[in-house]
User: What shape does this take?
Amino acid sequence: MTVDEALALARRLGVERGDAQALIAQLTGRDRTWLITHGDARVPGAEAALRRLADGEPLAHLTGWQPFHGLNLRVTPATLIPRPDTEVLVNWALELLVGMPGRPAVADLGTGSGAIALAIKAACGRATVCAVDLSAPALEVAHANGEALGLEVDWRQGNWFEPLAGRHFDLIVSNPPYIAGDDPHLPALRHEPLTALTPGGDGLADLRTLIDAAPQHLPPGGWLLLEHGWDQAEAVARQLSGRGFGEVALRRDLGGRARASGGRWPG
Assistant: This one.
């Protein structure tokens, strides 16, 4: 199958042209500009790959890569695919780090592919970054991403704060599972690890756990930033305030939806 034939098949299958071009570029080892002038070039495996894409398999799993905050990250079915909306959390973290002197300590909990930890380290090299995940396969992906990018992160395996006993951080960030167990969108995300998407129930269990435990690992003035669902902002803010956090604030994603909430431990 040629490039032109593959693009025609993509149209018939309802695959977005940009996604089809990205996939074909990966299969040919060329960039999109090359595809425009080489419509008769052969594309090995194009039909099977395009049909998998049309069937809902994520483009990132087919190409093996996902861009995030200026980084190109390796992803596999063992990790959540980093979303552009999560860059809101990273940007907020970086704003806070500007005002922190010396070598601020940062913890990323539930790191997955390492996206948040690596984006923070790439943009703020003086920060010391530690990242935790319960999944050994996910940590392997994250560690490989760090090695490929030449970014030093302390990778730890365990459940939330368990590997961090006795340690304190100036900034704790997390994009935990927060989708409700009965959310109708979950079936469409079947190619990603379910445990990285939902804790079941109302989706707030892991957010509550993090808010409850974080003060044991924050110095006075330390920050906790959490990504959450667009309809969970009020509940998360109440939980933060109820636990004793001050300066509770909200950030919105690219679509204007409530996406991240955070607070400062008093002191």
The longest strand covers residues 246-252. The two ends are 65 Å apart (CA to CA). The mean pLDDT is 94. Strands lie at 65-68, 71-74, 105-109, 128-133, 154-157, 171-174, 223-227, 246-252, 258-264.
